[in-house]
Amino acid sequence: MTTSNTGTGAVDPEVRQELDRLRDSIDNIDAAVVHMLAERFKATQQVGRLKALHQLPPADPAREARQIERLRSLAENAKLDPAFAEKFLNFIIAEVIRHHERIAEDTHNGRPAQEGGPGGDQAPARD
């Protein structure tokens, strides 16, 4: 396959076909990641409700440390930058703790936890 891009926007049809194929694959992976995150937050929302009902703290630093170490190891095995994986998990943990805090506040004030997802109306939990 040749890359004959003349700067005028013309791309070799074989290159364009390969680019489109790779982009389709990326789009499929992105969709899977979103669906997996949604499932993760559904499960962690249940954890948040359980914690709130039993007056457990929203954060669990020991578990978070174990999860970060586990994810770094998984990343290394998958040939993914462990620092990137850790940043990604830290982002998720921070979002979930925020939602755990909201669930605890709602429970304490006699309000039911809302449904939805991170950034939306739901108060997903973490664990």
What do you see in this structure?
By secondary structure, this protein is mainly alpha-helical. 67% of the residues lie in helices and 0% in strands. The longest helix is centred in the N-terminal third of the chain and has 41 residues. The C terminus is likely disordered.
- Total count of strands: 0
Alpha carbon gap, first and last residue: 47 Å
- Summed up, the helix count is 3
Global outline: elongated
Uncertain segments of ≥5 residues (pLDDT<50)? Answer: 119-126
Biggest sheet statistics: none
**Fraction in helix:** 55-70%
Mean pLDDT over the residues:
87
Structural class: mainly alpha
Give, in order, the helices and strands. Answer: HHH
Gyration radius, in Å: 21 Å
- Report strand %: under 5%
Question: Quick summary of this structure?
Answer:
The chain has 127 residues and is mainly α. 67% of the residues lie in helices and 0% in strands.
Strand and helix map with partners:
Blueprint: H1 13-53, H2 61-77, H3 82-108
Helix pairs in contact: 1-3, 2-3
Question: Any descriptors?
Answer:
single chain; disordered C terminus; mainly alpha; 3 helices; 127 residues
